[in-house]
């Protein structure tokens, strides 16, 4: 593929060019594709580099080549339709990079089966600058989820925190997975109220780490593993091993160091969380917790 404006500087503080960004995505496409192929894609574009204005794009315009990018129409809640792009190949990843895409965002479902999530995600968001706190929270959350029968892998998000992720067998509906993720987060807050919180409003969190379970709702997305982030240093959302938690910061893997890394999730198996969902419900009942409708504006 011919890269247009390959010499344009995309990360101005680091001198990283558009050509280098495209080359990065070509190099990691094989590792990245399993996480984004067949999903309704939202892309974060910075046509003039991260020093310029960026924007999120969901709709696939007509000029996207249909030979490498499919379309998937989704009805909006307030009427109308969003026609998402869907990629299936490394060529499509490189094509988007050439359009100025820095970050790829994906839902927890594929377009082939929007009724069943194949990932559950808990996004840990710490107070500003508290890497120590989010490391502690990740370890505590891992132990908490394992106690509920939920194994996890770890993602250094490329931003402020870590994501704990579970690869799912298609046994539970996305609504059940959402409730499971929320219930597990609420129970974690109950057990570790000084460290963890599910308070949506930052003003209510204090010095605690927010467990963002909302990545599991039907219309939500999260950063795709191996995606770059529009931040100085060109950090990326990197799969890491649990024994790297103490040595790899949330933004500790960058474009410059990514290609040398192996995929530590390669051997993670899909799991049926039916029993875990039952355990979460039992624990909620035992503690007298009711999960009513959630209003993000009220927290």
Mind explaining what this structure looks like?
By secondary structure, this protein is of the alpha+beta class. The protein has two domains: 1-106, DNA primase, PRIM domain, CATH 3.90.920.10; 115-294, DNA primase, PRIM domain. The chain is built from six helices and 14 strands. A six-stranded mixed β-sheet has the order 11-12-8-10-9-14, with helices on one face. A four-stranded antiparallel β-sheet has the order 4-3-7-13. A two-stranded antiparallel ribbon has the order 1-2. Helix 1 (18-36) packs antiparallel against helix 2 (90-98). The chain is globular, with a radius of gyration of 19 Å.
Brief write-up:
The chain has 299 residues and is of the alpha+beta class. The protein contains 6 helices and 14 strands.
Largest sheet: 6 strands, mixed
Computed over alpha carbons, the radius of gyration is 19 Å
Written as H for each helix and E for each strand, in order along the chain, the element string is EEHEEEEHEEHEEHEEEEHH
Helix content: 25-40%
CATH topology of the largest domain: DNA primase, PRIM domain
Which stretches of 5+ consecutive residues score pLDDT under 50? none
List the helices and strands and how they pair.
Blueprint: E1 9-11, E2 16-17, H1 18-36, E3 42-45, E4 55-57, E5 69-75, E6 81-87, H2 90-98, E7 101-106, E8 119-125, H3 131-147, E9 153-156, E10 162-167, H4 174-191, E11 196-197, E12 209-212, E13 222-223, E14 238-240, H5 255-258, H6 274-286
Parallel strand pairs: 11-12
Antiparallel strand pairs: 1-2, 3-4, 3-7, 5-6, 7-13, 8-10, 8-12, 9-10, 9-14
Helix pairs in contact: 1-2, 4-6
